[in-house]
Design goal:
It is a single chain. By secondary structure, the chain is α/β, with parallel strands linked by helices. It has one domain (3-259): Rossmann fold. The two termini are 12 Å apart. The radius of gyration is 17 Å and the shape is globular. A 6-stranded mixed beta sheet has the order 2-1-3-7-10-13, with helices on both faces. Strands 8-9-11-12 form a 4-stranded antiparallel beta sheet. A 3-stranded antiparallel beta sheet has the order 4-5-6. The chain has helices at residues 23-36, 51-63, 110-117, 160-164, 168-178, 214-223, 230-237, 256-259; strands at residues 3-9, 42-45, 70-76, 79-83, 93-97, 108-109, 125-131, 144-146, 152-155, 191-194, 203-207, 210-213, 251-253. The chain has 8 helices and 13 strands.
Length: 264
């Protein structure tokens, strides 16, 4: 058996004016935690985390795994959605992760992840940990909360209207999709631990003066308690989130066997 991992963190989003602060720390923290667990994680951050680089690394990650291996993919950065063009989404939205070059129409769609994850060999376990806003709450600018004793807290949502870049046809399609209720679904042949529900935001925060995602910091603290299954990790996370300042509800999606099987 072998353990494979890819950790991605993006703070710098050129052309958006919506840079983040804690995502690179998230990625390096996951890299360290997974290395302690016997993984040799590949790390991609900021300019190295383009769409092509992330997708190529994922294909290598999954392609090198054989039965009995474990693969972990962690992503910290902006999430968003765009109107579905293939007709396979009941809510008319394709959820997406935002790579470094997202403003060059370089998106990592849920369909892209499904295609890559579907190539896994039989007996390979895949866990995806996503600390981003997938979709749901549609705003034209990410909201900011300010706590008296900490730095500002930013949402990890890149609004779809920003991705439209003034394209009126696309903006009208977004307007139509806004009126459809968001749905929570997992089509990937993988276990997903997500920072929030599809209609919520995931928050970029600061802990003891160091930027991190609220979900990532909580998840890594929960991991240190010695939990041994994804469900136990999720249950430990839910003891902390959501809170008043981080109104995000972490999610776990996957089969019962995967949720109660080995952790990572």
């Amino acid at each position: 058996m072998a353990n494979h991992a890819l950790c991605v963190g993006i703070n710098d989003y050129p052309g958006t004016r919506l840079d983040l602060r804690g995502c690179v720390n998230d990625a390096t923290d996951w890299q360290s935690a997974l290395a302690d667990g016997g993984y040799s994680p590949v790390l991609l951050t900021d300019a190295s985390a383009t769409r092509d680089a992330v997708m190529d690394a994922l294909r290598t990650l999954i392609g090198n795994a054989v039965s009995g291996d474990s693969c972990v993919f962690t992503f910290s950065g902006h999430g968003s959605w765009l109107p579905d063009e293939s007709g396979d989404e009941s809510d008319e939205r394709d959820e997406l992760l935002c790579p470094y070059d997202v403003m060059q129409h370089a998106y990592i769609l849920d369909d892209d992840l499904y295609q890559v994850f579907s190539t896994k060999a039989s007996g390979v376990r895949i866990t995806m940990v996503s600390d981003s806003c997938h979709s749901g709450t549609v705003v034209r600018a990410a909201p900011r909360l300010v706590r008296a004793e900490t730095d500002a807290v930013s949402a990890r949502l890149l609004p779809p209207y920003v991705l439209a870049q003034g394209d009126r046809r696309l903006e009208r399609a977004i307007d139509r999709a806004v009126r459809k209720p968001a749905t929570t679904k997992l089509r990937y042949p993988a276990l997903l631990l997500a920072a929030c529900a599809d209609d919520e935001l995931s928050y970029d925060a600061s802990f003891d003066g160091r930027p991190n995602g609220a979900f990532t910091r909580t998840a890594l603290t929960a991991l240190a308690t010695g939990v041994t299954t994804p469900q136990a990790l999720y249950d430990e996370i839910r003891k902390t989130l959501p809170t008043e300042w981080f109104p995000q509800t972490p999610q776990i999606h996957g089969s019962r066997a995967a949720r109660n099987g080995p952790l990572f």
